[in-house]
């Protein structure tokens, strides 16, 4: 069952790389946005909230197309990013990571936001009276106390990124070795006359990855909680 | 010398208070809802006044007309809350040293030993707040505030969440704190007996106004308290 072809291994490795990069890049941004939504009081907050959740309700193909318009070679920002940062996004694995990051962002932000909201602001006040400037209150009190939620958000985001299909295939297509993730490989295989067995193998693999991610998150969250409250 | 002259509107309730005190322990005495905690929060810098000034000696902390509001973290005013508010993810030792770390103070093992000795918390250093009793937690909170080297210590009903017997256990520590810590304090309580044992000056507060200011003899006697 597990005698995977090199092409299949490539798709699996690519999926893991795309989802990992998407999650790692999105997490700091997600924490910042979650903090703004949880604690910020500013005009246009409902707008930011809606924008963050948009990928959850838009058809993925629409999100993918918007990404193509914005970050394509001749897109609104795509050219600038390629010229100044040297990062090509369209039809590259980096673009797949961007698509996965955008699509998983709402799932990443939500648990983080809830956990920041749950941090007792009285503790933050106590820290301030002990001489901690607001950014140090955030780093030494808010962030560690919100850690279980941050882990939960990262795992949810990672799981979503691993399975992302619609926006990715729209934005970066389905190029073996470059943008063909497990999902798009399964899609290609189902389209092929004798691809059923191979599709089934990849399907099993993706289930194992998803299951492992959930078990890992449970373990991390438990550990974080123990660390927080001391046995 | 603590000088307070403020006005604050809080919904239906308004707080208008003016006093200057210079005792080792200034007691804020009044029933619940008199505005004691709001007043203490303003001194700490957690709540800005609508009008007026707050100063310690020559240092102006709030002056609404001049646009001065020193944020809480730059005031060097220690605050012991009714609910100790220890950081649950840190050990007792980390809690105690938090203020030292945040204020960039030099390591001072002698001071840590002195304060933990004064409060009898030396044997708790490696525990987490979740493993402490209410009285122990409150003692650690005193130590944490003290070790930040405050110029003034605010104690807002620090025994309010403890039962009668625990209070009796804590009171000697507070008296020791007053006599040995050499930090001026503002002590908030609605318990006349407690106040009589600690305060050297008393501000009587009722519904957001000062009704009397003077020595502990102002406090109602035990029989009609």
General description of the model:
The complex is a heterodimer of chains A (231) and B (225). With 231 residues, chain A is mainly α. Chain A has a domain at 26-40 and 93-229: Orthogonal Bundle (MetI-like fold). Helix content of chain A is 78%, strand content 0%. Chain A has helices at residues 6-39, 45-57, 60-71, 78-84, 93-118, 121-129, 134-145, 147-163, 166-172, 182-191, 196-229. In chain A, helix 6 runs antiparallel to helix 7 (134-145). The longest helix of chain A is centred in the N-terminal third of the chain and has 34 residues, at 6-39. With 225 residues, chain B is an alpha/beta fold. Chain B has a single domain (2-87, 153-224), classed as P-loop containing nucleotide triphosphate hydrolases (Rossmann fold, 3-Layer(aba) Sandwich), CATH 3.40.50.300. Chain B is 31% helix and 28% strand. In chain B, the strands form two sheets. In chain B, strands 7-8-9-3-10-11 form a six-stranded mixed beta sheet, sandwiched between helices. Chain B has a five-stranded antiparallel beta sheet with strand order 2-1-4-5-6, with helices on one face. In chain B, strand 10 (201-206) and strand 11 (209-214) form a beta hairpin. The mean pLDDT of chain B is 91. At the A-B interface, helix 6, helix 7 and helix 11 of A face strand 7 and helix 2 of B.
Shape of chain A: globular
Widest beta sheet: strand line-up of chain B: 7-8-9-3-10-11
Proportion of helical residues of chain A: over 70%
Q: How many distinct beta strands of chain A?
A: 0
CA radius of gyration of chain B is: 17 Å
Poorly predicted regions of chain B are: none
**What profile does the largest beta sheet of chain B have?**
6 strands, mixed
- On the 0 to 100 scale, the average pLDDT of chain A is 90
In terms of DSSP E residues, the strand content of chain A is: under 5%
CATH class of chain B: Alpha Beta
Which pair of protein chains has the largest interface, and what are the residue counts?
A-B, 24 and 30 residues
């Amino acid at each position: 069952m597990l005698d995977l072809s090199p092409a299949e291994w490539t798709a699996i490795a690519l999926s893991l790389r795309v989802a990992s990069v998407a999650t790692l890049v999105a997490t700091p941004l997600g924490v910042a946005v979650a903090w703004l939504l949880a604690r910020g009081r500013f005009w246009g907050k409902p707008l930011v909230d809606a924008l963050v959740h948009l990928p959850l309700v838009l058809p993925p193909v629409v999100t993918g197309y918007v990404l193509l318009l914005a970050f394509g070679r001749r897109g609104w920002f795509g050219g600038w990013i390629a010229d100044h940062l040297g990062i090509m996004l369209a039809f590259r694995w980096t673009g797949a990571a961007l698509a996965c990051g955008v699509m998983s962002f709402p799932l990443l932000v939500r648990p983080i936001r809830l956990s920041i909201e749950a941090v007792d602001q009285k503790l933050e006040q106590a820290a301030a009276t002990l001489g901690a400037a607001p950014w140090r209150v955030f780093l030494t009190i808010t962030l560690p106390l919100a850690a279980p939620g941050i882990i939960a958000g990262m795992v949810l985001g990672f799981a979503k990124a691993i399975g992302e299909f619609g926006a990715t295939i729209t934005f970066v297509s389905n190029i073996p070795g470059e943008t063909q993730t497990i999902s798009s490989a399964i899609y290609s295989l189902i389209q092929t006359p004798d691809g059923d067995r191979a599709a089934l193998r990849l399907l099993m693999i993706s289930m194992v990855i998803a299951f492992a991610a959930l078990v890992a998150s449970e373990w991390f969250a438990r550990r974080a909680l123990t660390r927080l409250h001391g046995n | 010398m603590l000088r307070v002259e403020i006005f604050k509107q809080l919904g239906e309730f308004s707080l208008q208070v003016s006093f200057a005190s210079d005792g080792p322990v200034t007691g804020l005495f009044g029933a619940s809802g008199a505005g004691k905690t709001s007043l203490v929060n303003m001194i700490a810098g957690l709540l800005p006044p609508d009008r007026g000034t707050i100063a310690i000696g020559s240092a102006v902390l709030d002056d609404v007309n001049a646009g001065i509001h020193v944020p809480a973290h730059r005031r060097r005013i220690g605050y012991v809350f009714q609910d100790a508010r220890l950081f649950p993810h840190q050990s007792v030792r980390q809690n105690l040293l938090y203020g030292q770390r945040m204020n960039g103070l030099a390591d001072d093992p002698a001071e840590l030993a002195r304060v933990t000795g004064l409060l009898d918390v030396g044997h708790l250093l490696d525990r987490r707040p979740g493993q402490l009793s209410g009285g122990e937690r409150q003692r650690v909170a005193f130590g944490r505030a003290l070790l930040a080297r405050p110029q003034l210590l605010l104690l807002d009903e620090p025994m309010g969440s403890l039962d009668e017997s625990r209070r009796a256990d804590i009171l000697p520590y507070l008296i020791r704190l007053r006599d040995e810590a050499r930090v001026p304090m503002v002590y908030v309580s609605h318990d006349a007996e407690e106040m009589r044992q600690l305060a050297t000056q008393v501000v009587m507060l009722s519904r957001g106004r000062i009704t009397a200011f003077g020595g502990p003899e102002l406090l109602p006697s035990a029989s009609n308290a």
